[in-house]
Design a protein that fits this description.
By secondary structure, the chain is of the alpha+beta class. The protein is 27% helix and 33% strand. It has helices at 13-20, 23-28, 37-45, 96-112, 126-134, 200-207, 210-215, 224-231, 281-296, 311-319; strands at 4-7, 51-57, 63-71, 80-87, 116-122, 138-149, 152-162, 190-194, 236-242, 247-254, 265-272, 301-307, 323-334, 337-347. A hairpin with a 5-residue loop joins strand 2 (51-57) and strand 3 (63-71). The longest helix has 17 residues, at 96-112. The chain is elongated, with a radius of gyration of 22 Å.
Length: 350
């Protein structure tokens, strides 16, 4: 059958509601089984500009599938989008997914010039995984305990399709497993405390170092006002300060989104002043975060991304139980090239 592919529209609320609440869609995506029609209409009336959604309709106009792209908004990852696909249960196996996937990939390649399209699929959704492989998506790893489904934290298969021009993908040489931490002596005294909005200038100065930008997704010329807003947002954040009160390290955790089926996940990030590498600052910040999460917060999974050639940072995370789950190829823009990152994670509560 030939399907008519068009953009999702505000008048599609009832059909999209039926699609999103189909039992098979709920089981194999991150949708919730009970959603109000009003909430779907509100979504369509205020559709986020970074989401591009297409629908597949039968010749008589019935909407039977939806697929599209969530564009990543972080500037150093704006070459990346996350693919999503939903096909109504009674239209599975009839070519709807293939039709949508072809249309979305054409849109991504020829009109958005995306370099990396990524997705996650529940580990036992073999039909979807096979479909993605047919269209060039490759297995990058498995995120353990990623998706809450029917009371069980299920693993997700991570896949991506790359479209780099020659020379754009600067594939890293991954740091070997068991890399050692930097050793520098002697150690200087420092202390930890919760970050405050008044720390914005000190944190911005920390982010201004070349090594910080090379090993994170921070931009050059950091904006103090951005950090003022971020430190006022109520996230769990810590700073390390030296004996004179200067900020020499920063760490925080945050949730990657507001989907209740991912509410058990938190992401973390740590930055240390280059002059303080090997002084135990990163270890102290990481230990404090892990204790806070383990004792007082409901998260079960902590995850992070790190450039795959950042051996000291990887060694630190492995020392505290983080495991390499996936190599995200060409994930971060650095010095004009697209570099690989590792997804690492550890269970906090079993």
């Amino acid at each position: 059958m030939n399907y008519h592919i068009r953009r999702l529209a505000p008048g599609d609320a009832a059909a999209l509601h039926r699609l999103r609440t189909s039992p098979g869609v709920v089981r194999n995506t991150l949708q919730q089984p009970f959603q109000s029609l009003a909430s779907v209409q509100q979504l369509l009336d205020n559709f986020p500009p970074h989401i591009h959604a297409l629908v597949a309709c039968t010749p008589d106009g019935e909407l039977v599938g939806c697929g599209g792209l969530h564009l990543v908004e972080r500037l150093r990852r704006r070459h990346v989008a996350t693919f999503f696909l939903m096909v109504r249960d009674d239209w599975q196996g009839k070519g709807v997914g293939s039709a949508l996937l072809r249309a979305v990939l054409d849109y991504a390649d020829n009109w958005l010039d995306l370099k990396r399209i990524e997705l996650d699929a529940v580990h036992d959704n073999h039909g979807a995984i096979a479909l993605y492989q047919r269209y060039g998506f490759e297995h990058e790893g498995v995120a353990r305990g990623f998706n809450l489904r029917e009371g069980i934290y299920e693993d997700a298969v991570l896949m991506a399709r790359l479209r780099f021009r020659p020379g754009e993908h600067a594939a890293n040489v991954d740091a070997p497993a068991g890399s050692t931490l930097r050793q520098v002596a002697p150690r200087q005294p420092f202390s930890l405390r919760h970050s405050e909005p008044g720390d914005a200038a000190g944190v911005a100065a920390l982010m201004a170092h070349d090594s910080t930008q090379a090993n994170t997704l921070q931009l050059p010329y950091p904006d103090q006002r951005f950090w003022q807003q971020r430190l006022s947002a109520g996230r769990l954040g810590l700073v390390a300060v030296d004996s004179t009160g200067n900020i020499i390290g920063n760490a925080g955790i945050w949730q990657p989104g507001d989907n209740p089926r991912l509410a058990h996940i938190a992401e973390l990030g740590i930055t240390v002043h280059p002059a303080q590498h090997g002084q135990g600052v990163g270890s102290a910040l990481l230990q404090a975060l892990l204790q806070q999460v383990g004792d007082y917060l409901p998260y079960r999974r902590l995850q992070l991304t790190v450039y795959s050639d950042n051996a000291p940072a990887i060694a630190l995370y492995e020392k505290y139980g983080f495991v390499r789950e996936a190599t995200l190829r060409g994930d971060g823009l650095r010095h004009g090239g697209y570099h690989d990152c590792l997804l690492m994670a550890r269970a906090v509560k079993l």
